[in-house]
Hints:
mainly alpha; 4 helices; elongated
Amino acid sequence: MKPTRFLTLLAVAAIDGFVALIxxxxxxxxxxxxxxxxxxxxxxxxxxxxxxVAFAWPMLKYRRDxxxxxxxxxxxxxxxxxxxxxxxxxxxxxxxxxxxxxILGWQIGVLLYLLSRPAQGSEAMARTIEAGIAAxxxxxxxxxIERFCRLPNEDRGANSAEPEATA
Length: 167
């Protein structure tokens, strides 16, 4: 599985932000209220990031033990991670990355709409900004965890003559 590209996440956020800007304008024109992120979203996204780190802890420990074993003169056996667990963790990190990018794009679109109107609600803007920050937190954690799910020899490049270790 290839690593998530920054441009892909930026495209998701930009498209979702544009859709949010247009949808918010259409909602207000039809007499409906602006959709503001609920308070639960502001707490849920960092909670998902914490759970993602908790799920990734065995992978982080394995990577640390593997690096220590490669440096040691007499390496001791390392308990390997279940490959299916590693793949599930990678998919969860990728899904969290794309979801947080979409949420961030939506919050940016709503924020742009609120800033373009003369009468803005300060509470609405504050919750929109807080939800955007929570999405960025999840985004960063998901991308870091995704990097930790890579095989150690992938970082050296494709020209490496050493055999690859499997996770």
